Amino acid sequence: MSFREGDLFEDSFLGDFGNESNTNDLGDRDDDDDFLDVYNLTPRQRLGHSLQKMSRKLVQQYNGLPWWQRYLAYFAGTCLLIAGITLLVFHDRILHRIVETSNELKDEKRTSFVLVALIFVVAFPPLIGFSLLGTITGLIYEMSFQGWLILAVGAVAGSIASFATFKTVLHSRAESLVHSNRRFEAFSSLLRENNSFWILALLRLCPFPYSLTNGAMAAIYGLSIKNFAIAQFIVTPKLLIYLFIGSRIKNIGETKSASSKILNLLSILATMAILTITAWILYFKTQRKYAELQRRDQQLNADSNQNAAFDASFDI
């Protein structure tokens, strides 16, 4: 198949997928269209639109890469494949070694301080790794008050420090973080309407990158450090999820029973599914509220323009 034929096949596939999802009118839209239009679609149409948009974006990004970055992408994919096969074949040995290492780290007094420091640091964008560190804490301390305290202290202190830094010293960078993502812009508009700590806590439960959220919210005018700090304390019970997942992984490595391993694995998958579904439900509900605010503002602007036009004609 030639390169041109491949392009035709790709366009045909994406077009057929759009027809099956009843999103022909969305297929020709530009990617920069207002994302709020998506919420007027049915779940099936929304899924089709998202997959179609993601496919186009991935193809465009890949075609725009230099040749060396394409080879680097191939290399990274190959490494991930090898790592997956290795984990599949030697998973018993790997899990056993993880359990031994976690027990050794638990006996070290400095482990808790190191974890708090690392969790504190990854609160600053663009660093990543909060979920990984939370799971590691669960591997070491399991479902315990000590594990929760380590996560809570590191996460709350790091979030407040990151927010304060970007609100004072790096405010221009915080502005760029907000405008880098339309979802951040949507939530910033909501928080300008109501920046109570309950709304902030709801934002923390939504599926946004941990560190980027800390920096982006610092750009919102009128949002106080006090309300931000209270919101971080409110959502600390969510940290127990990381401890639970880490403890289940450790149990899988410790037990020899196949049924126990399956139950632990299913509990991990169920927890992640519930967390994901809950987060996305909250996210979509909040986005609908934002859409209502947008429509209300547009209606008010339209009414004010009509009144201005009427007054002008009356004066004449």
UniProtKB/TrEMBL annotation:
<dbReference type="Pfam" id="PF09335">
    <property type="entry name" value="VTT_dom"/>
</dbReference>
<feature type="transmembrane region" description="Helical">
    <location>
        <begin position="112"/>
        <end position="141"/>
    </location>
</feature>
<dbReference type="GO" id="GO:0016192">
    <property type="term" value="P:vesicle-mediated transport"/>
</dbReference>
<keyword id="KW-0812">Transmembrane</keyword>
<keyword id="KW-0472">Membrane</keyword>
<feature type="transmembrane region" description="Helical">
    <location>
        <begin position="147"/>
        <end position="166"/>
    </location>
</feature>
<feature type="transmembrane region" description="Helical">
    <location>
        <begin position="71"/>
        <end position="91"/>
    </location>
</feature>
<protein>
    <recommendedName>
        <fullName>Golgi apparatus membrane protein TVP38</fullName>
    </recommendedName>
</protein>
<feature type="transmembrane region" description="Helical">
    <location>
        <begin position="265"/>
        <end position="283"/>
    </location>
</feature>
<dbReference type="InterPro" id="IPR051076">
    <property type="entry name" value="Golgi_membrane_TVP38/TMEM64"/>
</dbReference>
<dbReference type="InterPro" id="IPR032816">
    <property type="entry name" value="VTT_dom"/>
</dbReference>
<dbReference type="GO" id="GO:0000139">
    <property type="term" value="C:Golgi membrane"/>
</dbReference>
<feature type="domain" description="VTT">
    <location>
        <begin position="133"/>
        <end position="247"/>
    </location>
</feature>
<feature type="transmembrane region" description="Helical">
    <location>
        <begin position="197"/>
        <end position="222"/>
    </location>
</feature>
<dbReference type="GO" id="GO:0000022">
    <property type="term" value="P:mitotic spindle elongation"/>
</dbReference>
<comment type="similarity">
    <text>Belongs to the TVP38/TMEM64 family.</text>
</comment>
<comment type="function">
    <text>Golgi membrane protein involved in vesicular trafficking and spindle migration.</text>
</comment>
<keyword id="KW-0333">Golgi apparatus</keyword>
<keyword id="KW-1133">Transmembrane helix</keyword>
<feature type="transmembrane region" description="Helical">
    <location>
        <begin position="228"/>
        <end position="245"/>
    </location>
</feature>
